[in-house]
Specification:
Elements lengths: L4 H8 L3 H9 L6 H14 L5 H8 L4 E5 L12 H14 L3 E5 L4 H13 L5 E5 L7 H7 L4 E4 L10 E4 L1 H14 L5 E5 L5 H16 L7 E3 L4 H12 L7 E4 L2 H13 L5 E5 L3 H5 L3 E4 L2 H13 L10 E4 L2 E3 L8
Length: 328
Amino acid sequence: MQPTVEDVARAAGVSRQTVSNVLNAPERVRPETRERVEAAIAQLGYRPNRVAQSLRASSSRMIGYRIEPVHPFAVGSIHDRLLHALADAGRAEDHHLLLYTADDLDGEIAGALALHRAGAVDGFVLYGLHAGDPRPPALLHHGIPFAAFGRTGHDEGHPWVDVDNAAGTAAATRHLVEVGHRRIAFAGYPRGGDVGERRAEGWRATLEACGLPPGPDLRGEDSLATGARLAAELLDDPEPPTAVVAATDTLAAGLLRGARDRGARLAVVGFDDTPTAAALDLSSVRQPIEAVGHAMVRALLNPAPPDGPPAASLLPPELIVRGSSCPP
């Protein structure tokens, strides 16, 4: 069998993309790395497939994205905004989105490999990364370009964009302190998830910086019913909080409903600033999703030089104050 690019990459101890750069853009590779790859090519007797190279040189002008199903209990989703932002940013770069579905992360990886091998896409955008996420190492292994929304904790090898979730809940907590609240609770996702824990940390650290003890820290699935249940738990506390920072607008809307059902007053700030937040007069932390979409497309289509670090962007969110975060 004829040796492949993967064989050369393995023998030289480099990525598949580095071998491709040596063959097609050698000026982008450090001299010592280029010499190592060229030695492996000579040793293995590798011969590039010029037909395949010419086909690959003709860009598909498509960006792959796995579209996720809408959460059945959510009152709003940032997916629509993200898709619009990606499509708008891609259009500015003469690219378009190719959407596909998958049942799970393994299916997403398999779909990405199939689309890339078929030449249907130039690269991918990954959504919602988390610790131990299998997608980045799999795509890196196969030399498939991608940019990620979110972080895994091991993000040095690929471009990523994320929202500073801790800064968002910190701003929400600081606002509630400034209007007079002294016992402020948190309502969030089940423990362990990266995004949820960063949002909890922003709340906790801000209360500590203000010299205030943290209020109750309650968790549950992201649904209106959960928010209402958590509101009942908080209000049954012998020293009930006067305010809550919620990890999502869905939980925040449930908290407002639960307090209303009990005839109680509870200041609430959500996260994501979905259309529901405006409809409910809910204060919320707005994610800069449009900026996220444009930053990911730029990082994907204009990669850093091989010897430089991949693009990394941590974007600040914005607190939108409405009537729900009233003084105690």
